[in-house]
Design a protein that fits this description.
Blueprint: H1 8-21, H2 37-48, H3 52-64
Helix pairs in contact: 2-3
Amino acid sequence: MAEISISNQDWNRVKIKLQRKYNHLTDAQLQYTEGQEDNLITRIMDLVNRDRNYVVFTLKKALVNIDNNRL
């Protein structure tokens, strides 16, 4: 089970933050279905060449400050 839970509504905002930080990521690469956090984390790990801990930390940081544009 994933270390985080992301709703579809929150994902839309988190996705924008990720695309700002990693401008090579496309909407197609960041497709997400609620409940598929493990698949999402694994895909992002491959796309940004980072380990799982970094990706989970980044996603948690984005969720905590959901109203802030910074990541």
